[in-house]
Write a structure and sequence with these properties.
By secondary structure, this protein is α+β, with helices and mostly antiparallel strands. The protein has 2 domains: 2-166, Beta-Lactamase; 178-335, 2-Layer Sandwich (Alpha-Beta Plaits), CATH 3.30.70.270. It has 9 helices and 12 strands. The chain has helices at residues 2-26, 30-44, 86-93, 140-168, 178-193, 210-217, 219-235, 261-277, 302-318; strands at residues 50-57, 60-67, 78-80, 97-98, 112-120, 123-132, 200-207, 243-248, 251-257, 288-295, 324-327, 333-335. The protein is elongated. It starts with a helix and ends with a strand. 39% of the residues are buried.
Length: 337
């Protein structure tokens, strides 16, 4: 009797420690919470050597996380919720389902497996699939309890990430928001002020005559134009180095990190040419006017750099639109060609 009590107390302590680890990791990110959950599942049941986590996505379950060497080809797997897999059964029934003689393993080498729905309140936020290749049985109760406790921290981590993403990325184009862009630019210049060798160029882009597009073809067509412009802008930038933003309405900004002024002007002209040549799917020409400013040549502060690029863009528009302008050495503005 005493031995069973000690074992029960030990199991409860292990479960509470696992819950604490998952909760602490969720403060970093949703992925971190799932990594901690996978580790905790293997700690509570050492036979577990494969963990897959499926998120509901319409009529399907989408595998968004995997842990264990046997899972390397299953990340991204999609299952129908109405299907006959273990995760599908757990999602549709609302309770855990174990592998038995009537069901088929998700991973061919599974000898034991359990699919556990993860809830935050009454909302299904994931299905956790834990499996073993060397055991014919798993300790069901502690695994189910751990997943039940992990639901709320995981859901909160997802909500925090969604809030951060909505504050960082523009919902229509996927580019940075104006605020996030300015914060990134200020951070670049703060590091430059601390002595890091830095050159960068700034584009300020305005879509020529965009109000006429909305008036003539409707806002849905206008949104498609802006989305295509955002794609063209990305194509002219260096992935994972440069940064693009929707400044608001039909205006865009971009930071070209490591670029010198002459190179940034030439690339801006290539962007203008690409916009002019693009088929936007409407019976009207679309062009862009761009202003270029560079650090440290034109300004050393973020606000001043933005003001100079903005003023250069307006010089482009006054000079006939569909062109690139920049500040010259006489503190005036010059059109590229």
């Amino acid at each position: 009797m005493h031995a069973r009590c000690r074992e029960a107390a030990r199991s409860e302590r292990a479960l509470l420690e696992a819950v604490g680890a998952v909760t602490a990791a969720s403060r970093d990110s949703a992925v971190a919470s799932l990594q901690a959950l996978a580790t905790a599942l293997s700690s509570l049941e050492p036979a577990v050597d494969a963990v897959l986590v499926f998120r509901p996505d319409g009529e399907e379950l989408h595998c968004s996380f995997s842990a264990g060497g046997r899972t390397q080809y299953f990340d991204g797997l999609r299952l129908r919720i109405a299907g006959d897999s273990l995760p599908s059964a757990a999602a549709s029934r609302g309770h855990h389902v174990v592998l038995d003689a009537r069901s088929k393993p998700l991973i061919p080498t599974d000898r034991a497996a359990i699919a556990i729905p993860m809830y935050a309140g009454s909302t299904l936020c994931a299905v956790v699939y834990a499996a073993a290749s060397r055991s014919r049985a798993l300790l069901t109760f502690p695994l189910v309890r751990l997943v039940a406790y992990a639901g709320v921290p995981y859901a909160l981590a997802r909500e925090r990430e969604a809030d951060r993403a909505s504050a960082t990325y523009d919902g229509l184009t996927g580019l940075y928001t104006a605020r996030a862009f300015r914060n990134a630019l200020q951070e670049d210049l703060r590091l430059a002020a601390l002595g890091r060798p830095t050159t960068l160029a700034l584009w300020f882009v305005d879509t020529d005559g965009f109000k006429g597009v909305n008036d003539a073809f409707g806002h849905a067509a206008g949104d498609r134009v802006l989305q295509r412009l955002a794609s063209l802008l990305r194509e002219q930038l260096m992935p994972a180095i440069d940064l693009a933003a929707r400044n608001g309405g039909d205006e865009f900004c971009a930071v070209l990190r490591g670029a010198h002024k002459t190179g940034a002007i030439a690339r801006a002209q290539a962007f203008c040419d690409a916009v002019r040549a693009c088929d936007f799917g409407i019976a009207a020409p679309i062009t862009a006017s761009v202003g270029v400013a560079a650090y440290p040549y034109d300004a050393s502060a973020a606000n001043e750099l933005l003001e100079i690029a903005d003023a250069a863009m307006y010089h482009s528009k006054r000079s006939g639109r569909d062109r690139v302008a920049f500040r010259d050495g006489r503190a005036g503005f010059t059109v590229h060609r």
